[in-house]
């Protein structure tokens, strides 16, 4: 259920913050969330018994609660939630879906505060800088708000002004988050196989980059240069004389939001062409430049009167290093050959999978996906379906999709959804195929034979493995002699007996508790302590119900075997 908020609903919507109050608010959320996760796995917490449908409904409700609570906690947590929406290896799909909806539409701050910040940052009052300045903002977000203005030279601009006290709030919140990350890192269950401190450092880096408006201005300039040969893409020009770390002045480029399909139709624009151009613009960013818009939601893309695309908001950008393309190429060859081992090895080298002692389950998951989802023609594949399959495999596995990878997948899914809204017959993969073929051609060389290249590469790999085999055997024997190698044998029968023994011991404990409370109730009743006797009796009855359910489950388990 969605919430509506007033200014008073946000305790963080002020310039001065209490670090103690923030500590209580943040840790209250964390502890409540941990309780909800603990309760989720308890069958007694589901009226009428646990079912898969009830668990799915509870996950959905918890995800909505998390999204609304992060909005209550303010800018830091709105942005952290948006970043966590890329971590499908940590959260179930319901959480990823809800967090990706997290939009920071919050109350605006006052015009008096805007005047103060602009004067502090640019050294002059608003009338000296602008011919006119609209006091009511065009839009307000958690990090700042945007006002329309006109320069003395007559050029229409928009002025982004950062929310007052934001840096102080970030410092307080990130210090508390560091303690939370450290707690989870040391947690016996949730810390295992997770790099919580690494996630915390990544969040810090992205958050500090996003509130540096000078950095955003440089990103906008780079983005515009990358599209200088495309007359159907427009990027607002930065007015550097009116820019600072907390104030950014940009060219005013109005347009129709790309998701307002009826308005585009009414303006006489070609919706099919817009859908294709949106996909082509993103593929150009990703494959040709390696510098891409990491948050291309419909609010950040508009369509001009001439049908050209207009991009806004360059605070969150992604970069793809040149060496990553070679790793992606290796992954593509593995997928083409349906070679699960090769795909896993390439993903480990890319950093998308954290190597663990037993990689068997991961290889089986990848091989299952290759065998079951890669038989369809490339053009008929859906980005959203592929990303859902990847996220399903990644959850609770040693997959560690880097932020760049998940930003790309989320952007692809968003653009595919917008494209289908513009044109029901639109297929993102069909538009992407020529770019993918071009990438493969470039990686192998225009005049080279890719098959021969691959054959020679495999021959070199085989010879390298053969030469290294004696040394690997020697290392294995040394580990056996030193006792460094552990051999793990799994016996299903032994595990069954141990589980049965554990259940019996638990049943004996329940029986002793029932006996103790029954005896206590009897003694209290004889001594005319009726209410205390009733309480003891109720406790004994409740434990009896748990004992009966345990015995029934034990009996059912025995029949299965």
UniProtKB/TrEMBL annotation:
Question: Mind listing the UniProt keywords for this protein, alphabetically?
Answer: Membrane, Transmembrane, Transmembrane helix
What's any one GO cellular component for it?
membrane
Is Membrane among the key words of this record? yes
Which biological process terms from the Gene Ontology are attached to this UniProt entry? membrane lipid biosynthetic process; regulation of response to reactive oxygen species
- Give the transmembrane ranges: 506-525, 531-552
Supply one GO molecular-function term.
Answer: protein kinase activity
All copies of domain Protein kinase, residue ranges: 132-498
Answer whether the UniProt record assigns the keyword Transmembrane helix to this protein.
yes
Similarity section:
Belongs to the protein kinase superfamily. ADCK protein kinase family.
Protein name from the UniProt record: Protein kinase domain-containing protein
The source organism is Nostoc piscinale CENA21
């Amino acid at each position: 259920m969605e919430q509506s908020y007033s200014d008073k609903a946000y305790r963080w919507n002020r310039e001065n913050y209490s670090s103690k109050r923030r500590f209580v608010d943040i840790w209250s959320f964390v502890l409540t969330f941990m309780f909800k996760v603990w309760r989720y796995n308890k069958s007694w917490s589901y009226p009428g018994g646990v079912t898969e449908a009830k668990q799915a409904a509870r996950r959905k409700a918890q995800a909505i609660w998390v999204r609304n609570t992060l909005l209550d906690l303010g800018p830091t947590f709105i942005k952290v939630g948006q970043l966590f929406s890329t971590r499908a290896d940590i959260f179930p799909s319901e959480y990823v879906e809800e967090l990706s909806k997290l939009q920071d539409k919050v109350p605006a701050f006052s015009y008096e505060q805007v005047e103060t910040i602009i004067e502090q940052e640019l050294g002059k009052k608003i009338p000296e800088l602008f011919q006119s300045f609209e006091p009511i903002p065009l839009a307000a977000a958690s990090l700042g708000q945007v006002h329309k203005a006109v320069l003395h030279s007559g050029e229409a601009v928009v002025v982004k002004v950062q929310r007052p006290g934001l840096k102080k709030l970030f410092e307080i919140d990130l210090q508390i988050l560091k303690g939370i990350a450290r707690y989870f890192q040391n947690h016996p269950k949730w810390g295992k196989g997770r790099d919580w401190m690494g996630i915390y450092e990544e969040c810090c880096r992205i958050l500090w980059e996003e509130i540096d408006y000078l950095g955003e201005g440089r990103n906008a300039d780079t983005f515009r240069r990358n599209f200088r040969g495309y007359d159907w893409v427009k990027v607002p020009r930065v007015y550097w004389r009116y820019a600072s770390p907390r104030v950014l002045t940009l060219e005013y480029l109005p347009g129709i939001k790309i998701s307002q399909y009826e308005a585009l139709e009414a303006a006489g624009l070609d919706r099919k062409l817009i859908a294709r151009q949106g996909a082509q613009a993103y593929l150009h960013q990703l494959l040709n430049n390696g510098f891409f818009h990491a948050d291309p939601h419909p609010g950040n893309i508009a369509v001009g009167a001439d049908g050209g695309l207009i991009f806004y908001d360059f605070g969150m950008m992604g970069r793809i290093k040149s060496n990553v393309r070679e790793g992606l190429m290796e992954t593509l060859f593995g997928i083409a050959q349906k070679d699960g081992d090769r795909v896993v090895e390439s993903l480990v080298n890319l950093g998308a999978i954290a190597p663990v002692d037993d990689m068997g389950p991961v290889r089986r998951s990848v091989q299952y996906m290759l065998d079951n989802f890669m038989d369809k023609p490339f053009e008929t594949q859906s980005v959203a379906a592929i990303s859902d399959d990847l996220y399903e495999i990644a959850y609770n596995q040693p997959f560690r999709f880097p932020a760049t990878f998940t930003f790309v997948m989320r952007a692809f899914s968003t653009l595919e959804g917008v494209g289908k809204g513009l044109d029901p017959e639109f297929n993102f993969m069909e538009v992407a195929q020529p770019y993918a073929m071009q990438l493969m051609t470039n990686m192998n060389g225009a005049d080279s034979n890719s098959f021969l290249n691959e054959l020679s590469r495999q021959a070199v790999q085989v010879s390298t493995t053969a030469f290294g085999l004696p040394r690997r055997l020697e290392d294995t024997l040394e580990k056996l002699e030193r006792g460094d190698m552990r051999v793990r044998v799994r016996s299903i029968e032994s595990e069954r007996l141990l589980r049965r023994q554990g259940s019996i011991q638990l049943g004996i404990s329940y029986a002793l508790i029932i006996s103790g409370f029954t005896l206590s109730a009897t003694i209290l009743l004889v001594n005319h302590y009726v209410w205390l006797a009733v309480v003891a009796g109720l406790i004994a009855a409740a434990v009896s119900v748990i004992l009966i359910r345990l015995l029934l489950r034990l009996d059912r388990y025995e029949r299965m075997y």
